[in-house]
Amino acid sequence: MHMNRHRLNCLIASIAVSALATNAAALAAPSGTAVRQVQIVDEAMCCAGCARKVSGQLYATRGVREVGVDMESRTLTVSLPEPTPAMLGRLWHAVERGNGTPTKLITSEATYTLVRPELDPAKQQAPAAEPLAIAINNLHCQDCANKIARQLYALKGVTKVSVDMQRGMLFLETSRGTRLSPWALIDATAKANERPLAVFGGHGKLTIEWATEAPSKDHQQAQQLRTGGYQR
User: Fold this and answer.
1) CA 137, 140, 146 angle in degrees (round to 5)?
2) What would the pLDDT profile of 133-142 be if each residue is shown by its tens digit?
3) How far is CA 190 from CA 80, 98, 148, 196, 220, in A?
4) Where does the HMA domain start and stop, copy by copy (predicted)?
5) What is the per-residue pLDDT for 212?
6) Same fold flag, 5-108 and 132-231
């Protein structure tokens, strides 16, 4: 019985990924560290060659121990010790460097889904980039906004951060030529011990669905809600 083309591609991809695993030992995390798994859906991964390129970029990312490929669902399963927001961003961009088109990233804590902007049919190009904005889970006081704003200002190229408390959003202005990854904003929010719900910008809309509810906030002194800006 002859093997059909689809099964052959899957087999070749599995062999290729196994070979890459052997060469990744030098980049792997120290033994004894708890290993976690992250799944990334790559819509552009349609053949063994695609899987090989994307897997190679993932294995070049420090800390990655193993990469599994499911060609049928176009899903990559990455094993690594600590999937921090910064690390998740590095994995996402590794897939892009391998000419992949990631649309979803899944961890045990959250699911990240990207909806890219639609092309303008007349110009065959994406619409003008929207200002960067980030929606925050339960942004109920000025102190929370201040903490996030300080972390956002630490990003290179950020010139102004404005907050809309009623909508639970922060808006960023950047210097000319600055291109910030949405994952940088997610990481900055996490450093402020807050939860992002979505990041808007030229990349489209990256939404975050959390597996559990955020812990309740208990401030000794509640601060009045208002709309304002923070500028250096």
Assistant:
1) 90
2) 999 999 989 9
3) 19, 27, 9, 8, 22
4) 36-100, 130-197
5) 93
6) yes
